[in-house]
C-alpha cells in the first residue's frame, strides 16, 4: 500500500515474521504456547514470592516486580502478533502503533533498571553483609523502584513525541512483527537526524546506566568472592548470582546486537534477534530463577502444595 507525503497514515501493515500464508498457522501454534507459558510462569513466581515469608526480601521483591513487568512486556506484543497470524489485513492503526511502541520501550527499559536494582542488591548482600538490612531498607527499595519506572516512562514519551513529528510516505508496511522504533523510523521520508541522535545519546545513556551498574556491581562481587578462602562460601555466592547473570546476558546480548548499529543495517536477522529479548527472555526468566535458586524452588513447592491442599 502506498502513501504520498502523509504526516500521519491512518494505519500500518505489520508484515510479521513471514509473509507466506502457509506459515501463519504454524507460527500461531508456536507463539500461543510461548505466551501462555510466559504468563503462567511469571504469575507463579509472583504468587510464590507473595505467599512465602522466606521470600519477603529485597531480592525477591524486585524479582516479583520483574515478573509482573515481563507479563506486561509480552502482552504488549504477542496478542496483536497472534491476531495478525490469523488475519488477512495485518493492519494496526497509527495510534495503536505508537501506543504499542511506547509501552514496548517503557517495559523493556523497566526490565533493564530492575536488573540493575537486583545487581545492586546482590552487591550489598555479598560485599557488605553486615550492613545489608540497613542499606537495602524499605525506603531504598521504593526509591529504586520509582527510578526504575519513572526514567523509562519519560524516555519512552520523548521517543514517541519525536516519532509523531515524522512524515511518512512511500510505504506503510512495517517489516516486523510489532511497531519497533527502528522499523517505523525506516518508513519516514522526512529527516530523522534528531531522532537518530536522540537514540544514540539519550537512548544509549538510559540503556548504559543500568548496564554499568550491573557491570560495576559484579566486578566488585567477583573481587570480594575471590578473596574468600572458603570454597563452599564461594560456590554459594556465585550460585545466588548465576541466574541473574544468565538473564542479564540474554537480555543485553540480544539488545546490543539489534540496536547498536546504524539504521541502514537493520535487516531480517534483527527481527529474529528481537525475539530473544522480547519473547524468549521473559519466558525463560521463571525457569532460570526457579531452577538455579534453592529458595525459589522451595517457595514454588510450597505454593503447589498449598494449591493441592485446597
Explain what the structure shows:
With 310 residues, the chain is an all-alpha fold. The chain has a single domain (16-309), classed as Up-down Bundle (Rhopdopsin 7-helix transmembrane proteins), CATH 1.20.1070.10. 75% of the residues lie in helices and 3% in strands. It is built from ten helices and three strands. The protein has a three-stranded mixed beta sheet. The longest helix is centred in the middle third of the chain and has 34 residues, at 94-127.
CATH-defined architecture: Up-down Bundle
Most strands sheet: 3 strands, mixed
Radius of gyration: 21 Å
Number of helices: 10
Q: Classify the secondary structure makeup into a structural class.
A: mainly alpha
Beta-strand percentage range: under 5%
| Annotated CATH homologous superfamily | Rhodopsin 7-helix transmembrane proteins
From the structure above, extract its key features:
3% strand, 10 helices, 310 residues, olfactory receptor activity, 3-stranded mixed beta sheet, globular, mainly alpha, Rhopdopsin 7-helix transmembrane proteins, single chain
Write the layout of secondary structure elements.
Layout: E1 11-14, H1 21-51, H2 58-85, E2 91-93, H3 94-127, H4 132-135, H5 138-164, E3 173-174, H6 181-185, H7 193-226, H8 231-259, H9 268-291, H10 294-309
Parallel strand pairs: 1-3
Antiparallel strand pairs: 1-2
Helix pairs in contact: 1-2, 1-9, 1-10, 2-3, 2-9, 3-5, 3-7, 3-8, 5-7, 8-9
Amino acid at each position: 500500500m502506498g502513501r504520498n507525503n502523509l504526516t500521519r497514515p491512518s494505519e500500518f501493515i505489520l508484515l510479521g515474521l513471514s509473509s507466506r500464508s502457509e506459515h501463519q498457522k504454524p507460527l500461531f501454534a508456536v507463539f500461543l504456547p510461548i505466551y501462555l507459558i510466559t504468563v503462567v510462569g511469571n504469575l507463579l513466581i509472583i504468587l510464590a514470592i507473595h505467599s512465602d515469608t522466606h521470600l519477603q526480601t529485597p531480592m525477591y521483591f524486585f524479582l516479583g516486580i520483574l515478573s509482573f513487568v515481563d507479563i506486561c512486556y509480552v502482552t504488549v506484543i504477542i496478542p496483536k502478533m497472534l491476531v495478525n497470524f490469523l488475519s488477512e489485513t495485518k493492519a494496526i492503526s497509527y495510534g495503536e502503533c505508537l501506543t504499542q511502541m511506547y509501552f514496548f520501550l517503557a517495559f523493556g527499559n523497566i526490565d533493564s533498571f530492575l536488573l540493575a536494582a537486583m545487581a545492586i542488591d546482590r552487591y550489598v548482600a555479598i560485599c557488605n553483609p553486615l550492613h545489608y538490612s540497613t542499606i537495602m531498607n524499605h525506603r531504598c527499595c521504593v526509591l529504586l523502584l520509582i527510578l526504575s519506572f519513572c526514567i523509562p516512562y519519560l524516555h519512552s514519551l520523548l521517543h514517541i513525541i519525536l516519532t509523531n513529528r515524522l512524515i511518512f510516505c512511500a510505504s506503510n508496511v512495517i517489516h516486523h512483527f510489532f511497531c519497533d522504533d527502528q522499523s517505523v523510523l525506516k518508513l519516514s521520508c522526512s529527516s530523522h537526524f534528531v531522532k537518530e541522535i536522540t537514540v544514540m545519546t539519550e537512548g544509549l545513556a538510559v540503556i548504559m546506566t543500568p548496564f554499568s551498574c550491573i557491570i560495576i556491581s559484579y566486578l566488585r562481587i567477583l573481587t570480594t568472592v575471590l578473596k574468600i578462602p572458603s570454597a563452599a562460601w564461594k560456590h554459594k555466592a556465585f550460585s545466588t548470582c548465576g541466574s541473574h547473570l544468565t538473564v542479564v546476558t540474554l537480555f543485553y546480548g540480544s539488545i546490543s546486537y539489534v540496536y547498536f548499529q546504524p539504521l541502514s543495517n537493520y535487516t531480517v536477522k534483527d527481527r529474529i534477534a528481537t525475539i530473544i529479548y522480547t519473547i524468549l527472555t521473559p519466558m525463560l526468566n521463571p525457569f532460570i530463577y526457579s531452577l538455579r535458586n534453592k529458595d525459589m524452588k522451595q517457595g514454588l513447592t510450597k505454593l503447589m502444595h498449598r494449591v493441592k491442599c485446597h
